[in-house]
Design brief:
Blueprint: H1 3-27, H2 30-38, H3 41-61, H4 70-94, H5 104-129, H6 142-158, H7 165-172, H8 175-195, H9 213-234, H10 243-269, H11 274-277
Length: 278
């Protein structure tokens, strides 16, 4: 076996492992199986398109292979989504969720939704499992951290958006409670990213507007709200709902999204500025 082939097999194995670690919970989630069948095909394509953009951003920051040109990054990102689809197909076949009686539409819907978290995990595998962490490459810019955060928000919120519990929480919440939830989400993610110092991964304060703790936290939370609303729309939660109910569901789902964004920013962007000084 040539060294190049051995390196490629190792990279794809690492990517598959990262994809399974991140996507395995959703492979066991009934709401996602049903969502793949119930959701209109064009909504699934919208989610896949957004996922591809985020994976492209992740791969431009790290990527599970070493190519760095624009064309190679685009090919890498297509490969990442393709790998996610293949892993999802194998897993769903093994779990008996896809078989000879499953319609093509049902199978395609399930694979489309399940491939999203697996592809995210494959992209993250480079930074966390390869030993080539982002901080060793000089860190990432604030806008890139927001992209990373958006991916984490989408990944975490995707676990909750299809469930009925988020509807109950959002509809039952009073305006006062929603304000408390917003404040709690902001304070929690601020503390996690900037002050908790998980293994030295807390962000250092830079000079840019988005490098400031409160401004980055507020902007990341706005991204989390947008992701929450996108998923609620995709899963049909906003159809026929009042403005108050939509606002309540969005704020409640954004709790999960905001924590996911904070964790993703720590995993990929930790010590972004500090890495340049070392």
């Amino acid at each position: 076996m040539t060294e190049g082939l051995r390196d490629s097999l190792r990279d794809y194995t690492r990517a598959a492992g990262g994809g399974l670690m991140v996507g395995l919970p959703l492979l066991y989630t009934m709401e996602v199986w049903l969502g793949g069948f119930i959701l209109p095909w064009w909504k699934i394509l919208v989610l896949l398109g957004i996922a591809y953009a985020i994976v492209l951003g992740y791969n431009s920051i790290a990527g599970f292979r070493r190519e760095r040109s624009i064309a190679q990054l685009m090919v890498d990102s297509v490969s990442t989504l393709g790998l996610g689809i293949v892993i999802a197909l194998v897993a769903l076949l093994v779990l008996g969720r896809i078989d000879s009686t499953t319609s093509l539409r049902d199978a395609a819907g399930k694979l489309g939704l399940e491939a999203i978290p697996i592809a995210f995990g494959a992209s993250l595998a480079a930074t966390q499992l390869s030993g080539n962490a982002v901080e060793h490459r000089g860190g990432i810019r604030p806008l890139a951290r927001l992209l990373v955060g958006g991916g984490g928000a989408l990944l975490f919120a995707l676990n909750v958006a299809p469930t009925e519990e988020i509807v109950v929480l959002g509809v039952d919440a009073s305006p006062a409670l929603l304000l408390i939830v917003v404040a709690t989400s902001l304070l929690t993610t601020l503390a996690l990213v900037f002050y908790a110092d998980f293994g030295g991964r807390s962000h250092q304060h830079g000079d840019g507007l988005l490098d400031q703790p409160w401004s980055e936290t507020a902007t990341s939370y706005a991204v989390s709200l947008a992701v929450a609303l996108l998923l609620l729309w995709a899963f049909g939660r906003t159809e026929g709902a009042s403005i108050g109910a939509i606002a309540g569901m969005t704020v409640m789902l954004a709790v999960v999204a905001a924590v996911g964004a904070a964790i993703a920013r720590l995993l990929v962007g930790g010590q972004a500025e500090g890495g340049e000084d070392q």
